[in-house]
Each structure stands twice: as structure tokens, then as C-alpha cells.
Give the backbone structure.
Amino acid sequence: MAMSNEQSILHIEDVYKSYGDKLILDNIDLSVNKGEFCTLVGPSGCGKSTLLRLILGQEKADHGALTINGHAAGYPDTERGIVFQRYSLYPHLTVLENVLLGKHLSKRRWYLPWVASQASKDEAMHYLDVLRLSAAANKYPHELSGGMQQRVAIAQALIMKPPVLLMDEPFGALDPDTREELQLFLLELWDKEKLTIFFVTHDLEEACFLGSRMLVLSQYYADDRGEVARGAKIVSDYALPSVALSTEIKTSSVFQELIGSVRQQGFDPSVLQHVRDFNLEHPDSFQTLLDQERSG
Ligand SMILES: Nc1ncnc2c1ncn2[C@@H]1O[C@H](COP(=O)(O)OP(=O)(O)OP(=O)(O)O)[C@@H](O)[C@H]1O
Ligand SMILES: [Mg+2]
């Protein structure tokens, strides 16, 4: 068993998850350190969002342990902000009210943002300021561009002060220019606010560009278990070079080669790496193999 060290903010071990008789996640092991910008890619339907829901405590694993800051997922102390692709803003509330609501979204009681205390409003304005949205505080979501709406969604999540900011394809609905602009913006925010981020995307270029660490989740691999139903595993775990605050790197050959090898290792059903040969190069990576996987 891998011990979680003091830096480890998210620890997942031996996690299995199925829906009905379909195994989705198949023995997931993952330890993420504070301050990491962790990106997760994988073929559509492999279980990326399912893993996020387990971390969020919205769903229970069939087996295994998930802890955040040492507490079981779903424990009140582990309140996390999450940013989805879209639809997290209430259309009839202003930007400020939407952010205020974020502060209370995780609490199971009625909350009316228009009777918020001055202290709460000041706090919400602080986050709007950080997200460069102060001027839009009294606007309604439909008056904002898609990129601005996603920044409001990020403010809504950050005000919960989550130990790990979870993001599920947050830029998936944006046009390419806005997407790139928000990628750079998020990198700056991560650096400045010392965030720990867990970011799901199926855009390989985005994952390589943003991450300080990149995980590949995939159902395409081989082991010695014989004829059993398999779910997805983490098949690659890369430590990426420290973050460049320019998009120029995207056109470099090293970058393009990395994308090519990730595409092959995780997305090509005809390339089946053996569990013992997974590319788990990140220093925090660990793998709990079953006996029949270890032999051979
Ligand atoms: N509540 C549910 N009940 C039954 N099956 C589900 C449920 N949620 C997800 N699944 C199934 O689990 C698998 C993984 O779904 P998930 O949404 O986690 O994939 P994903 O990797 O996020 O895909 P995408 O890249 O398309 O967002 C899929 O086959 C999906 O159909
Ligand atoms: Mg998904």
C-alpha cells in the first residue's frame, strides 16, 4: 500500500465502480499532491466524469477508498467546487448573486442571495475581482459571453474554497479563441492562487498544455486475468515540464510527439499495453496490482 504523504491532498486506492453489471472503473490508484494541475484524458465513455463524481462524493465506489485532505469523499469538510461545461449559472440571478449562491450551494438549506450579509458580498466581489469580472457584477448571465460565463462558474466554485478545484470539460462549449484565452487565464490563476486542480477534458492538446501532470484513463489495455469484464484504468501518468505561459509550445515537436504517444496508448483500441508496462512515470504514481496481474 502506498502511504499518502503530507503533501497528498487527494488519495484514491483500489477503487472500483460499476453501473449495473458493467464495470466502469477498474482498480483506480491515484495520489495527487497539493498544488498540482492534474489533467485527465481518455476515450469518450471511459469513466472520467464518473471518477469526478466519486471524488465529489456524489456517488459511492463499489470498493476502495477516496480521501480528500484525509477525510472520506462526501464528508462536509471536503466541500469541493466543481465547474461543468455549462449550465451552472442561474439565469434569473445576477453575476454577483450567482457567485454568492456558490458559497451556499453545498449546504442543504434555502439561501436567498439578495439578503446576503455585506461580508459575504465583499467576499463574492473579491472572487469576481480575481476573475476580472467586477464590472459585470450586476449583469445577468445572458448578457455575458460564453468565456465570461465560465469565469463566473469558476468564481462560484472558488468561493467554496475547495481543497481541489474539479473541472469537467469546462471549456468544451467555447470557441477555439476563447478557449485558448481561458486556458491561459486558468494557468495564471492556478499559479497566483496556488490552487490544486483536477481537470477533465477529452482534448489531448488542452490536457498537455495545461497540466503539470497528465493522467490517461482507458479501457484499452491487457492483463493476465483471463476472460473477465474489464473497466478503465489509469494507463499513463506523465510528469509534464513546468507550465509555459505561452501557447507557442503547442506547435513544438516535443509537444506534438507527446500527444501522438498518448493518443496511441489510451485511445487506440488496437494498441493494448500490458498493465505491467503502463507508462506511470510521475513520481507520485502507484499501482496496486492483483496477484494474477503481477505474475506472467
Ligand atoms: N448513472 C449512470 N447509470 C448507468 N450508466 C452510467 C451512469 N453514468 C454513466 N454511465 C455509463 O458509465 C460509462 C462512463 O460514463 P462517464 O460519463 O463517466 O464517461 P466519460 O469518460 O466522462 O465520457 P465523456 O468523455 O463522453 O464525457 C458510460 O458507459 C456511461 O454510459
Ligand atoms: Mg464526461
In short: The chain has two domains: 17-80+163-294, 90-161. Residues 90-161 form one domain.
